[in-house]
Design goal:
It contains no helices and eleven strands. By secondary structure, the chain is mainly beta.
Length: 119
């Protein structure tokens, strides 16, 4: 069994910062790409940032230059540093990890964490 546990959401004023964490745990596995999506009320889920196992990153245009994704492979953990937050960043943030386990590659999801940015 594999679990992704998120932490770090909360309420912050516009211009502030938050750091999200997402740790994968469970039986022995190989973690490939990791990343973050978000979903605001009434909107579709949006890809925010991704990072490969060798550290290559990719960002949506809406967060480029403000958010930084990183990972600690030894801890199977991905982070999202969010700076210069805007009210439009308000959403539930979901981490994911593409995990190879028993010969099967599948995407696992975190439980979601609320980020609220007040104006």
């Amino acid at each position: 069994q594999v679990q992704l546990v998120e932490s770090g959401g909360g309420l912050v004023q516009a211009g502030g910062s938050l750091r999200l964490s997402c740790a994968a745990s469970g039986s022995i596995f190989v973690v490939n790409d990791m990343g973050w999506y978000r979903q605001a009320p009434g909107k579709q889920r949006e890809l925010v940032a991704t990072i490969t196992s060798d550290g290559t990153t990719n960002y949506s245009d809406s967060v480029k230059g403000r958010f930084t994704i990183s990972r600690d492979n030894a801890k199977n953990t991905v982070y999202l540093e969010m700076d210069s937050l805007k009210p439009e960043d308000t959403a539930v943030y979901y981490c994911y990890a593409d995990i190879l386990r028993r010969g099967i590659l599948r995407k696992y999801w975190g439980q979601g964490t609320q980020v609220t940015v007040s104006s």
